[in-house]
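Appendix B. Extra example for self-study. Work through it before the problem class; the solution is given directly after the inputs so you can check yourself.
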Amino acid sequence: MSVRVLPDFLINQIAAGEVVERPASVVKELIENALDAGADQIMIDVVDGGRTSISVVDNGSGMSRHDLEKSIMRHATSKLPDDDLLNINYMGFRGEALPSIASVSDMIIDTCNGIEENGWCLDCSTGDIKPSSWENGTRIRVNNLFSKTPARLKFLRGDKSEMISVLDVFKRLAMARPDVGFVLNNKWRFPKNQEITERIISVMGDDVRGHMLTVDAISSNASLKLTGVISEPTLRRASSVDQYLFVNGRPVKDKVLFGALRAAYMDVMHAREFPLCALYLDLDHRSVDVNVSPAKTEVHFLEPVHVRNFMIKSLRDVLAKTLDEKTNMNSYCYTGQSITNKKINFNLGDYSRVSSPNRNAPDIAFMFKPVKDDSLENFFESEKPDATDSQIQNEGTFPLGRVIGQVGNKYILSQSGENLIIVDQHAAHERITYERLRRYDIKRQPLLTPIVINIKSEDGEAILSISEEMKKSGLYIDAFGNDAIAIFEKPADWDLNWDDLFHSIADEVREYGHSAQLSERLHLKLANYACHHSVRAGQKLDYNQMDALLRDIEKTNRGSECNHGRPVYKIIPFAEIDGWFERI
Ligand code: ADP
Ligand code: MG
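Solution. Structure tokens for the complete assembly:
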């Protein structure tokens, strides 16, 4: 067998294997080309999930006859003027898309640059080029995708499923450029020059309105900038569909960024749930390599740890600030006096104590008993405990208000100003317990016989590089000979499969320069503990217990969400209730 250089059509088909995986990749490449050509209106039509035809029409610069002929040659691009692969200002740069798509479909391009007398039409299957009546911008039609490569055709999923992928690509690009108008199959329409928030709502759905928090952060040395929005923890999805991430304007699905997002929400959302976001990270072109894969959804950061930490901190700041504001709503005014006066005796057992027998725990059922007084409010006041063991002088000003009673043995009702408040007793206590546990130093247990983990030396190095970080989770480690690591101290009462954990941490550190696995496990452990050591739904509470619970939740960080991201309380303004009864 002699060595031979493959013919161009085969080389293109091989390249197509990387660039054009499915119809969605064609749509992506064609939209990106339209954006690169400066279009501000792009219309896409996709038939049968893209299998039968894909058409993309733009009002961009168009091409001259000469450029049109070149555009379907391999590695022909207008986008790398100074041959610098790190300085990429366009979405495309490889010059691979058009020749690849042409090699696996019947592609026809109509284009007009407005300078030449007429437009041009190129039939890529035959190479025929002829004058066309096309007047403005470019239309690319891709018919019978993969019909020339039946093996690829077989790998396509059903039309519906391919369409979902097309829609995903479409939405991501539409989010990247709210200034550009997009239409898909005449059904999904995003007008041009939309405000970013309106574009986000059009893409993600109306339920996000009013529930997104603004992010606008810049790193201390000004090298990283993060803008966009993230969802309040109570708004979440069952998958990552509505997580939109962009690096220098390019939609990415990058593990460093997804990981940072998850870590930022770790305290307020269950690991199996996903916050929504549209986050735009901007950094110097030289600090990120987008030249990783032809699909270009992954990037390599020069300093992944820096990026990750900056993102976690920026997002946590936003979450903490907003959640605190929520807790400190209305006219919440502790006097310094009342805080110190109050016994904040927080034992885990506090609320689980059996109701004191002499205290008549007001239950909502009381409301339906005949009462002499015509005001229910007065009735309950007479049931309140003595002023001495609570801050009675401030009662009117507590944000979570004065306890009215318990319903269903799981919700506490209270009133604050012109609001009725319903508190989920379990979620509330769980959040208090969790935040309290977090303030403790972890109790460490020195090991008489260290736990030794055999590990390849490069994996060992990776792990030792984050040993300071591990200390924060209570783990003291050091090298143990050449091919092992030893744990000398670990959190008491914490036994894991250290071997597995360390190997998987090493993989992560080597790939991303960082690993959050240990802190995530610690979080899970705390969350689990908090959940099992908190007042349950179904437990009857007396007035003091309920009052203490409300007062504590007011002082707790992120008190408005439990550590699974569920709401802890709901505030119903009387005005809303008036509406129910048509009392306006
Ligand atoms: P790349 O985008 O990486 O340069 P492509 O194969 O996608 O490679 O496109 C090749 C060239 O064809 C581009 O560099 C551009 O000059 C031209 N081109 C492609 N699509 C369009 C379009 N819609 N409008 C104008 N020019 C286009
Ligand atoms: Mg391109």
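Self-check: The longest strand covers residues 444-454. If your reasoning did not lead you there, revisit section 3.
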